[in-house]
Amino acid sequence: MKAIVTEGHGAPDVLVYRDIDAPPAPKGHQVLVRVRACGVCRRDILVRQGPGHRGLASPLVLGHEIAGEVVALGPEARGLQVGQRVCSTQREFVCGCCSMCRTDRETLCPDLRFLGQEASGGYAEYVLINDDNLARLPDNVDFAHGAIVGCPVGTAFNAVCDTGKVQPGERVLITGAGGLGMHAVQIARAVGATVIASTRSQSKVRALEEAGAHTVVVAVDGNFAKGVRAATGGRGVDVTVDTVGGAVFHEVRRSVVPGGRIILVGEVTGTAVELDMAQIYRRGLEIRSAVSTSRRQLEMALRLVASGAVRPLVERTMPLAEAAAAHRLVEDNAVVGRVVLVP
Ligand SMILES: [Zn+2]
Ligand SMILES: [Zn+2]
Questions:
Q1: Ligand 2 centroid to 105 CA: how many Å?
Q2: Does residue 303 fall inside a structural domain?
Q3: Domain for residue 307, yes or no?
Q4: What whole-number distance in Å separates Cα of residue 292 and Cα of residue 298?
Q5: Residues 231, 265: one domain?
Q6: Is residue 108 part of a domain?
Q7: Within a domain: residue 305?
Q8: Which ligand is nearest to the CA of 97?
């Protein structure tokens, strides 16, 4: 089969389009999926660039945002039939029996495999994925949109709904206008919150408003707390879903009301934060993190997408052979929505 194989680490030209062996017949709970779309995630770029990731599959085929059709089922695979349209979770939850897996928190299980990293991924014509890590695609959701529900959409659902427990009428600040931020805005709006979005870039304002933000605070220097307080009558927001990370932590902290919730999702700045604990303790703040998308969160996000309440943001599709060019577009921030590869 044709695949994009990551030949070493470095610039996008380590991504080589060539023939590799097709996966063997599925065993146990495995499902053979013919890939029809695979999203290009920032995570793919980090794995391609660095050797700093443990347990890489060989040959390394990237891609964890996968949609396709079921071609064959392992003898123990359940719940799916040949020909069905499916999409994947970001990680394979292979354990199923630890305290995390048994309490709907399998994304925190110590024994999971990242597709496209520790297991072969979706930059290929076929991929093997366990039955538990696939969901059926609703008829009205196409492959390109379905492919990204398990990563930016589902993780934003986790942050807003499950971890953030956002209630109708609450005021919610979403920081950052990347994949997580854009979908978090849509989901917070869909659950009835008043949504404030912050960005450093005037050019993102329109897209954030179209995603459903009631107010967009543009702070070129990243100091948005003042603008957020002004937008809430001086009060602040009940919840912040922060997709940026350490560089904006103190602005996030200053933006929430006493008793407010700070939800961390996706640390992209790698900035260490100096923190006086009294700044958290005295104001009764809560800090939680949302990691990835569980199977249930994938199903819930698919329902929101099928109902039209949330629109997965796919900016363009490209042939699989052009994966290197797709990586360059993402690295250069030349796209707002996802680039999706089609084998
Ligand atoms: Zn992803
Ligand atoms: Zn587990």
A1: 8
A2: no
A3: no
A4: 10
A5: yes
A6: yes
A7: no
A8: 2
Residues 20 and 127 in one domain: yes
Mean pLDDT of the chain: 95
Tokens describing residue 132: 């538990």
**CA 99–ligand 2 middle distance (angstroms):** 7
In the structure, ligand 2 is a single-atom ion and the residues with CB under 5 Å from it are: 95, 98, 101, 109
> Tokens at residue 98, please?
């630890």
Q: Does the pLDDT value for residue 155 go beyond 80?
A: yes
Ligand closest to 104 (CA) is 2
DSSP secondary structure string for all residues of 153-168? IHHHHIIIIIIS---T
- In this structure, the answer to whether residues 124 and 198 fall within a common structural domain is no
Please give the distance, rounded to the nearest whole angstrom, from the Cα atom of residue 296 to the centre of ligand 2: 15
pLDDT attached to residue 59: 84
- The pLDDT of residue 52 is 67
Ligand 1 centroid distance, CA of 148 (Å): 7
Residue pointed to by tokens 């897209």:
207
Q: Taking Cα atoms as reference points, which of 62, 79, 80 lies closest to residue 71? A: 80
Q: Which distant-in-sequence residues (6+ apart) come within 8 Å of 99 by Cβ?
A: none
Q: Domain count for the chain, please give it.
A: 2
- Mean pLDDT, range 91-110, rounded to an integer: 91
Report whether 211 contacts 177 (CB < 8 A). no
Is the pLDDT confidence value at 339 over 80? yes
Ligand 2 centre from 75 Cα, in Å? 23
Q: Give the tens place of pLDDT for each residue, 202-237.
A: 999 999 999 999 999 999 999 999 999 999 999 999
CA angle 329, 330, 335 (to 5 degrees): 75
Domain range for 247: 154-289
Which value, in Å, is the radius of gyration of the alpha carbons in the chain? 20
Model confidence at 242: pLDDT above 70: yes
- β-pairing, 30-40 vs 338-342, is antiparallel
Residues 120 and 216 in one domain: no
User: Looking at the CA of 340, which ligand is closest?
Assistant: 1
Question: Mind listing the pLDDT tens digit for each residue in 36-49?
Answer: 999 999 999 999 99
What is the whole-number distance in angstroms between the Cα of residue 226 and the centre of ligand 2?
A: 42
Ligand 2 centre and the CA of 156: distance in Å? 22
